Amino acid sequence: MEKKYTEINSKTIDKWVEDGWEWGKPISHEVFENAKNKEWSVLLTPTKPVPKEWFGEFKNAEILGLASGGGQQMPIFSALGARCTVLDYSEKQLLSEKEVAKRENYEIKTIRADMTKPLPFKDESFDLIFHPVSNCYVEDVIPVWKECYRVLKKGGILLSGLDNGINYIFNDEETTVTYKLPFNPLKDKQQYEDSIKNDWGIQFSHTIEEQIGGQLQAGFILTDIYQDTNGTGKLHDFNIPTFYATRVIKN
User: Which CA distances in Å does 138 have to 20, 49, 221, 239?
Assistant: First the structure.
């Protein structure tokens, strides 16, 4: 069961993209053109744009989109003059990146790889890593933070969107507390069966110790943080924060 979960997630996300998943819809030509004119915003979490002061200089910056395929953020960074590489395990998300790059005539490196494995990059390769909410598809996030630290240059920035776990205790309608935390289908037969039946993929809740604590243990310095909601649904209607975004730097 455990060996296959990242493959299950890759295929699940491919299917979501085909079905019109919000996080798999590439940006339009108009949005790309606006970005070239310095009118742009990107998301790490569902609703709040990332503060522009969180970024460094874009021109000629080496940026890694970590599990960030879909043609939503990398085209913006490319329009702003960055050199972008995107690593994702979903073929459909990478295909979107290639299609936008071809449409807008810029270069992008696309790599299909599993982020639970060592990243296929040399030490100190990137100025910035952009990592939207996606480590919920990974059981152990600590190695991911260590690899991010390794492949960032000194002074490099890691921007991450993180799920705080609250979403995983509820049913789909967000009306009933249904599951215990931690949510880990590899260790709970009912969670596994429900995940497959409901087409959730194999997702995992993570604690603040794993998420922010893991970044700090890897050697990062936390410089800023904010909370966000789901954007839709009952938890959102009650303004319950279910995500947070962090900005950390490599010393």
Answer: 23, 24, 23, 27
3-state DSSP assignment of residue 28? coil
Question: What tokens appear for 85 in the block?
Answer: 């590489």
Which DSSP string do the residues of 64-131 spell out, in sequence order? Answer: EEET--SSSSHHHHHHTT-EEEEEES-HHHHHHHHHHHHHHT--EEEEE--TTSPPSS-TT-EEEEEE
What secondary structure does DSSP assign to 46-66, as a single string?
SSPBPPGGGS---TT-EEEEE
Average confidence (pLDDT) over 6-31: 97
pLDDT value at 1 more than 80: no
Residue 91 corresponds to which amino acid?
E
Instruction: Return mean pLDDT, the chain.
Output: 97
| CB-based contact 54:157 (threshold 8 Å) | yes
How far from 206 is each of 39, 127, 175, 184, 243, CA to CA, in Å? 34, 26, 22, 9, 11
Strand 152-163 and strand 243-250: pairing? antiparallel
User: For 209-218, what is each residue's pLDDT tens digit?
Assistant: 999 999 999 9
Residues 6+ apart with CB under 8 A from 52: none
